[in-house]
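ARCHIVE CARD
CATEGORY: sequence design from structure
SOURCE FIELD: tokenized fold
FIELD CONTENT:
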């Protein structure tokens, strides 16, 4: 019964009315768990650079270049290839290019 209540509460908040679908996407959830501590919860920057407003697309016109960057890292950016699958990295990159790209 406790598990059922827990799942219900999680789903209640995950499907909160007024929350954009992009914010509930797997890419958004992965971003919050792995990237937001440096890039900000909304992608507005912090320790890491801003990703909102199309910054990711301008910095990486080729999506595959951004995927390689997130996978391997460079400079202060850690590589996430050891923590996330290729599919998860693609989801995060798509999120930064679409939902945060506006």
């Amino acid at each position: 019964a406790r598990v059922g209540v827990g799942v219900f509460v999680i789903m209640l908040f995950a499907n909160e009315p007024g929350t954009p679908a992009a914010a509930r996407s797997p890419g958004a959830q992965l971003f919050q768990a792995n990237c937001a501590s440096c890039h900000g919860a909304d992608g507005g920057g912090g320790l890491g650079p801003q990703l909102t407003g199309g910054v990711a697309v301008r910095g990486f016109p080729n999506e595959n270049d951004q995927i390689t960057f997130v996978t391997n890292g460079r400079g202060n950016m850690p590589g996430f290839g050891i923590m996330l699958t290729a599919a998860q990295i693609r989801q995060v990159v798509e999120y930064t290019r679409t939902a945060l790209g506006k």
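CARD ANNOTATION: Confidence is low (pLDDT under 50) at residues 3-16. The radius of gyration is 15 Å.
SHELF: design records, drawer C
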